Amino acid sequence: MTVQSQLRRKRTLEVLRKSLHYITQMLIWIGCVTVGTCTSQLLYEIQGPLYYNCDVTADITDVKMEQIGEDLVRVTGVKGLPPPPTTKVGITAPAGYQCEWHFFMCGLDIEEKCKITEDQIRHSKPQQ
C-alpha cells in the first residue's frame, strides 16, 4: 500500500511531522481534491489572511499548496497564532460520531442569545 493510499484512508486532513499538512478524501467520497478545490474551499471559509477560531488563529499569509498525488494536496506555510479575545463558540465532547452545528448570532442581546444557545446544546448532550 502506498503512502498516498494510506493517507487517503485515514482522515480528510492529516497533520504529520514537521508541520506538513495533507488534504485528501476518503475513498467512498465522490469528488476531487486539487489545489483548485482546496483554494476555493479556503477562500469560502475565510475572508482574509487570518482564520479566527475559539482556540487558535491560523495565519495563511504564506500558505502554499502543491498537488502531490491523485486527491492529495500538501499544504505548508500556515502559522498558528494565539486565539482572538472574542470569536466563535466551540464545544467539544466525545460522542462516538462527528457532528457540526453552526449558529450565527446577530442583533441585540448577543450575550443572552449565546447563553441560551449554549444551554440548549449542553442540555441535549448526554451527561457523562
How would you describe this structure in keywords?
globular; 3-stranded antiparallel sheet; disordered N terminus; 128 residues; alpha+beta; 7 strands
Question: Summed up, what is this model?
Answer:
The protein has 128 residues and is an alpha+beta fold. The protein is built from three helices and seven strands.
Structure overview:
The chain is of the alpha+beta class. It has 2 domains: 3-81, no CATH class; 89-128, no CATH class. Helices cover 27% and strands 20% of the residues. The chain is built from 3 helices and 7 strands. Strands 1-2-6-5 form a 4-stranded antiparallel beta sheet, with helices on both faces. The longest helix has 15 residues, at 110-124. The protein starts with a helix and ends with a helix. The relative contact order is 0.14. Residues 1-18 have low confidence and may be disordered.
SSE arrangement:
Layout: H1 3-10, E1 13-15, E2 21-23, H2 35-45, E3 50-52, E4 57-59, E5 64-69, E6 72-76, E7 79-81, H3 110-124
Antiparallel strand pairs: 1-2, 2-6, 3-4, 4-7, 5-6
